Input
Amino acid sequence: MRYVFLLHCFFTFSFSQAQIKLQKMKPTPGVTMLMPEGFTLMNDDMLAKKYFSPKKPTAMYTDASGEVDLGINFTNNYWQEQDIPMLKDLYKGSLRANYTKVEFLQENITRINKRDFVVLEFVGIVSDEDSKANALGRKNQISKYNYLMYTVVENRIVVVNFNCPTKYQSQWQALVPKIMESVKIRNLKENAEPKPKK
Output
């Protein structure tokens, strides 16, 4: 019986992976990567609801359900490529501050298409302390699977971000590295913030 159950799980997982097709896209000038078919660019209203930030992400895509997100963002902070190991520690600390609990599955620096990237793969949990307890006396929790990559290009931090509810983690976890390892960054000048006129 156990063998039948494991076989069912294996074929279910394989089938779900086969259904996700990737296509090469240019989410923003200077960047190409593989993205799942059917993902669409978020509009400003959706961005405002899901990502609370005074500066909206450069390009954020989502699936038909609006629950699985993949995007890219550039910061205007000045950094150098030799600062990448420092970025790893900085962002790890920031994640621990923003989540109630963080379980790191991967935390390293890896070479992808001739660039060094910080790779942070983790499950982040946020407990809603202000919510009313449910019938079992438990507080609501939001649990998400995340795969983040950071690098420095032309003195700007480039962030590539995938996230989904943990209920979809088994469906995506094996595929996300393929998506991330396809990222190629050539030129960010077209994405530069317009300079104020003197």
